[in-house]
Write the structure tokens for this entry.
Amino acid sequence: MIKIKEWFLIHKKEITIFILVFLLCSLSFGLGYLVNREFNHAPIVINKVSS
């Protein structure tokens, strides 16, 4: 248990940077997903095939 605590204290900066990057990527993905749903247009339907 002490080794784990020491490891976290040693790598505190890297862990914080990883968490911030992960949250930023998740937020970017979520916002992009929501924006795409708002601007989703109706599909193009082809009724007659030309010969």
